[in-house]
Write a structure and sequence with these properties.
- The structure holds 2 protein chains of 2 kinds.
- By secondary structure, chain A is an alpha/beta fold.
- Chain A has 5 helices and 5 strands; from the N terminus they run E-H-E-E-H-E-H-H-E-H.
- Chain A has one domain (10-136): 3-Layer(aba) Sandwich (Rossmann fold), CATH 3.40.50.
- Helix content of chain A is 33%, strand content 16%.
- The radius of gyration of chain B is 22 Å and the shape is elongated.
- Chains A and B meet through helix 3, strand 5 and helix 5 of A and helix 2 of B.
Chain lengths: 143, 135
């Protein structure tokens, strides 16, 4: 059972594991007055327990693997993860590196993923992914 | 002048907001209904911020199959190994999910079969749908 408040004002927790900081800057750029996602109620929060959506950047490094799993386990159901950037999708330039334990969707199989290709993607593409996540949460709530 | 700020205040009052209203100015009541309305033509998605320069902008890659001679130079030069070679047809397949939009394959292509497009709204819930695999 999913409460009603879930589908509006998506709160986002940002996880970074091995990202080069480019996509992180682009997520912050989406919060600036030019793009202003806060008009939709989308904002970054400080704890995964408060988050409706998790914004994930970077390929998962071996050191961070356990921590990433722990952070996402703390997020409430339904777990929706927006993967920002080429690194999170398939490794990008870091693909098949010795210090990676695979892209995020290999580690967390039971979550809904939205992918934003780009290196880094433009803020509009990130907003589009959040719109899709929003649509998905509405669908889930109806069932 | 007594109020040097006065002129600025008047200008500010009639100026449009700096925020680009993509995809809608305010949050719609239901995103699903909004997208359905867009498909029917009832509602309209506000366009994103204009791309700075169409000539040099690096969006989703465009591939001209007929021009491609299968020399595999793009595969050699790709930093993220996003390009796959199809042996039987001697053509390539590009995975946009891994592509980093560096356009090095465009520069090295001897027949100019590859070029950078202008599309950048590529978010989806799948890694390998029709939009994200260029053949």
């Amino acid at each position: 059972m999913i409460p009603k408040a879930f589908k509006r004002s998506l709160w986002v927790f940002h996880v970074n594991s091995g990202s080069c900081n480019g996509c992180d800057i682009e997520i912050v750029a989406a919060l600036t007055p030019r793009y202003d996602v806060e008009r939709f109620g989308i904002k970054l929060v400080g704890s995964p327990r408060h988050a409706d959506v998790i914004a994930f950047t970077g390929p998962v490094t071996k050191d961070m693997e356990e921590k990433v799993k722990r952070v996402i386990a703390q997020a409430p159901e339904p777990k929706v993860i927006v993967v920002v950037g080429a690194c999170g999708i398939g490794g990008g330039v870091f693909h098949e590196s010795y210090h990676l334990s695979g892209p995020i969707d290999k580690l967390i199989p039971d979550a809904k993923f939205f992918y934003v290709p780009g290196c880094p993607p433009r803020p509009e593409a990130i907003i589009q992914a959040f719109a899709k996540a929003w649509e998905y949460l509405e669908e889930v709530e109806k069932k | 002048m007594m109020f040097p700020m006065f002129k600025q205040l008047i200008v500010q009052m009639f100026r449009k907001p700096f925020t680009n209203p993509f995809p809608a100015k305010y949050a719609p009541k239901s995103m699903k209904k909004f997208m359905e309305d867009v498909e029917k033509g009832k509602a309209k998605i506000n366009p994103p911020v204009e791309i700075p320069d169409e000539e040099t902008f690096r969006g989703r890659i465009l591939y001209d199959r007929d021009k491609c001679i299968g020399c595999q130079l793009c595969i050699k030069v790709c930093p993220s190994k996003a390009i796959e070679f199809k042996k039987e047809e001697k053509k390539i397949r590009i995975y946009i999910g891994r592509c980093i939009f560096c356009s090095q394959c465009n520069d090295i292509c001897p027949t100019n079969a590859l070029s950078m497009g202008n599309e950048f709204l590529l978010a989806s819930d799948s890694k390998v749908n029709d939009e994200l695999v260029v053949e």
